[in-house]
């Protein structure tokens, strides 16, 4: 199989149901999801230690779900059911709650970083937020189900919570943003 097709040389690409420009919002959205998947793979490569078996298996599951999400977004018009299922969102919420309970209480904004694995998770989190913003823009321009958008929103929170747990299990403290007021009271959330 050849990796090049020569069909994209004029700035067009195939999506499910037709062809679009390579800078089409749909292509930007699922391309960003591909970028996100790559950063998750990078984080996963840093988590071979037994302490992270749970997070590692979850990240592998998430990588498959991101392929489903990208596939769902590649349809010019939705037909049939999404590959990405609603229960994937519920799973992320369960894991966010578990990791929020495991990590130290969060009161202030923290700086991304700590261990290399945690830093990669924070990069993935920011890419997930960009993918979410692009999905919002795509929803304004095209008929799109809400499952991919909701999934990306929860995924960024999951990545934040897991990044904190990775540092915690490695005995690395989060670095609080020094000019942060106390912003988290009761709930420990990673985003919005």
Automatic annotation (TrEMBL):
Signal peptide: none annotated. Residues 3-165 form the Cobalamin adenosyltransferase-like domain. Its EC number is 2.5.1.17. Keywords: ATP-binding, Cobalamin biosynthesis, Nucleotide-binding, Transferase. Pfam families: Cob_adeno_trans (PF01923). Pathway: Cofactor biosynthesis; adenosylcobalamin biosynthesis; adenosylcobalamin from cob(II)yrinate a,c-diamide: step 2/7. It catalyses: 2 cob(II)yrinate a,c diamide + reduced [electron-transfer flavoprotein] + 2 ATP = 2 adenosylcob(III)yrinate a,c-diamide + 2 triphosphate + oxidized [electron-transfer flavoprotein] + 3 H(+); 2 cob(II)alamin + reduced [electron-transfer flavoprotein] + 2 ATP = 2 adenosylcob(III)alamin + 2 triphosphate + oxidized [electron-transfer flavoprotein] + 3 H(+). GO terms for biological process: cobalamin biosynthetic process. Coiled coil: none annotated. GO terms for molecular function: ATP binding; corrinoid adenosyltransferase activity. InterPro entries: CblAdoTrfase-like, CblAdoTrfase-like_sf, PduO-typ. PANTHER family: CORRINOID ADENOSYLTRANSFERASE, CORRINOID ADENOSYLTRANSFERASE MMAB. Homotrimer. Belongs to the Cob(I)alamin adenosyltransferase family. This is Corrinoid adenosyltransferase. It comes from Bacillus sonorensis L12. The lineage of its organism: Bacteria, Bacillati, Bacillota, Bacilli, Bacillales.
């Amino acid at each position: 199989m050849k990796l090049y097709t020569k069909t994209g040389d004029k700035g067009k690409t195939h999506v499910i149901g037709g062809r679009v420009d390579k800078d089409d919002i749909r292509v930007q959205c699922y391309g960003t999801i591909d970028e996100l998947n790559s950063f998750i793979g990078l984080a996963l490569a840093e988590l071979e230690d037994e302490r992270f078996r749970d997070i590692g298996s979850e990240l592998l599951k998430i990588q498959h779900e991101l392929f489903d999400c990208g596939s769902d977004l590649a349809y010019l018009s939705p037909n049939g059911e999404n590959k990405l299922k609603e229960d994937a969102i519920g799973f992320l919420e369960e894991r966010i709650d578990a990791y929020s309970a495991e990590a130290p209480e969060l009161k202030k904004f923290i700086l991304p970083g700590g261990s290399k694995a945690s830093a990669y998770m924070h990069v993935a989190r920011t890419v997930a937020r960009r993918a979410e913003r692009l999905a919002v823009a795509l929803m304004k321009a095209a008929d799109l189900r809400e499952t991919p958008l909701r999934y990306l929103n929860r995924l960024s929170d999951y990545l934040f919570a897991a990044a904190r747990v990775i540092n915690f299990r490695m005995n690395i403290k989060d670095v609080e943003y020094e000019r942060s007021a106390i912003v988290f009271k009761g709930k420990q959330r990673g985003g919005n």
